[in-house]
């Protein structure tokens, strides 16, 4: 058994950093582990223009701890009205690496999202021409659809037709949660990939209700069945380069989670690589970790692989019950419970 694991420094291809005091509270966790992260644009108000994205990027850089080496890769939030000119500005900025499709109402701050992908023609044409990837929150928001079926129905009704209508468009199917999604990606044309979160690899939906309701395991897309979880693990076990790391770390204050109407989102940046190491080891696929965490995503985004390394130690540690989060607290994934791997250099 290896007790020490040296890994090409990883990147997080799906991250929520928030703004202001919340940004300052969470950014150091990511910057310590990851060299780069795709930063999601679902702020309130959302990052719908290049000017907003560039200003947000400056706020992120200003919030970095001294000496940190971390690059935020910005994204635009698509709306029914995103113009081709806006996509051209985004691409020309050199700071924007994808555009996010939130179906209207699908999740946190998705109210201004897209009501009908048919309205995205000008934006998608420009993105195809400029090779700017489309990042998709893949859930059908139709109130008739069972919440556990939203991802599978989205594939049939929206994503598969969209991928066919725009054959040159590169697409990341974000935070895949189901066997249907894994099968879609594996059978898809070139240029389609997916991110996978730690929570969807660690838990099935029983965990939400085990011995009582667990709001800190509530995220969107919601946890799925054990068969779905196994399908995600099988895709990673094959070393399929279309699946790569995206934590979807999504901090909300404890009060907003432990509420009569709790927010969706799981904070995992404090152990954003350690949890994956634990999962890969438990599956007996630790040699697959580096590709998933540090190579396939960079290759998809056509960015250089990082040249520096991190070291993980087989040394169990427990995250605290909460971290400070502006005026409130932030309950991390695995709060107070052991995590099998520790990052060398992480504060105890
Ligand atoms: O659980 C989630 N939280 N899913 C999302 O899609 C958004 C995220 C957030 O921003 O809180
Ligand atoms: Zn997300």
Structural features, described:
The chain is an alpha/beta fold and 348 residues long. It is built from eleven helices and 13 strands. The strands form three sheets. An eight-stranded parallel sheet has the order 2-3-4-5-6-7-8-9. Strands 1-10-13 form a three-stranded antiparallel sheet, with helices on one face. Helix 3 (84-93) packs parallel to helix 4 (121-130). The radius of gyration is 19 Å and the shape is globular.
Mean pLDDT: 97
Q: What coarse outline follows from CA principal-axis ratios?
A: globular
Bound molecules: (4S)-2,6-dioxohexahydropyrimidine-4-carboxylic acid, zinc ion
Q: What sequence of helices (H) and strands (E) makes up the elements? A: EEHEHEHEHEHEHEHHEHHHEEEE
Number of helices: 11
Residue share in helix: 25-40%
| Level-2 CATH architecture | Alpha-Beta Barrel
The CATH topology:
TIM Barrel
* Backbone structural class: alpha/beta
Kindly report the name of the CATH homologous superfamily: Metal-dependent hydrolases
